[in-house]
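Students often ask why we bother encoding 3D structure as a string. The short answer is that it lets us treat folding as translation between two languages. Here is a chain of 447 residues written in the first language.
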Amino acid sequence: MVLESTARALALRVATEQATARIPALAVALTRGGELIWSGYRGRVGDGPPTASTQFRVGSITKSMVAVMVMRLRDEGLLDLLDPLEKHLPGTPAGEVTIAQLLSHTGGLTAEPPGEWWERTPGVPMPELIGRLDPMTGRHRPGRRFHYSNLGFGFLGEVVARKRGRGWAQVVRDEVLAPLGMRDTTERPRTPHATGYAVHPWADVLLPEPEHDAVALAPAGQMWCSAADLARWAIFVGGDGAGVLRPATMAEMREPATVEDGPSWTSGYGLGLQLRRHNGRRLAGHTGSMPGFLATVWADPADGVGVLFLANTTSGVKGNALTGDLLDILDEHEPALPAEWRPAPVDDDLLALTGPWYWGPAAYVMRALPGRGLALTPVGETGRASRFAALADGTWLGLDGYYAGETLRVVRTGGGVHLDLNTFVFTREPYGPPGPVPGGVDPEGWR
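And here it is in the second language, the structure alphabet:
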């Protein structure tokens, strides 16, 4: 729970958004530390305000749920992210595009399928959809650039269905949503749910929007979800996988695979997750829109905070501004306390590796991390920092930075000890002792 003053500031921001954007119904929530800490509801669904159990359509947030299932299949060895689509879904004109490229919207596929606007018209089965496609399905060379594709996630949903032998939504419900306690998330709406509306731009009147089963395109945006369930999703996205995914796989989904706006990126995409930077935070989650509905969910794995909103309007909500402001209000009124420091045991052999190391004349320092981990960081503003995890064979695997995936070995000789980091040698003294330094050291030494 939050303090009364914090709740008042949050409620004011939500009320202002609902009134100025003219949203028929708006549900908002914040999570922290694995719990729902605040929620707010404005507007009307039927005769009263929406509640934590009122369903809204979440649009493309569905894609993240499908992506989690794809990653489960990868972890089980049933597919590889580098597999071409043709291997698992033959007969499409996008057969050379890889699973990873579909997950990250870098396959170059057209954004929308051919035919009428799929979000407002009844869908068609996958064989019929494939039959409508032509060589222009590929708009860009695969891997060249980020180009959002609803069609690509229709393909991924079909891959999930074929691998499990039942519908994609049933698979996602059984293997992803149910373990997370998301029992109010369904492929089609159930009562109570909000009706999707368009709000007239120049008058305070509403027009109901159509809702259909998108069939083959359903994996791109079909799900309906309550605020309580979407809060559980925020906690999952910012966490360690909750037993649904391996912690390393969850972290892999949050890594940037591509960016949308250049080198100093503020928005990008991982594997089925959108990424966004906001005031020092690096958020993972997804936005969603369907006729009559807008939704967004973000999570910050660094401090376990999540934010979301659900609205039944086709347009008008400034979603990133709303969610960003709610996070800022929480940070201003109730900043997270640093975790309490406590001493932790360190094995003697690990303790002996801590302290200064030198790559040539460049100074680094090694620190011990929990679980026999190591962190190698430069002394000063330049250099390559990485963390390393201990492996059973006595080596360490790079987790991030330049050395991600590379091997660190501790080499002990009669002349002492040095580190071999993928051919780079680190010694206890600058360029010394002479033995292990590649290319040798001038015999006259420093002068």
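Translate back mentally: DSSP finds eleven helices and 20 strands in the chain. Keep this in mind for the problem set.
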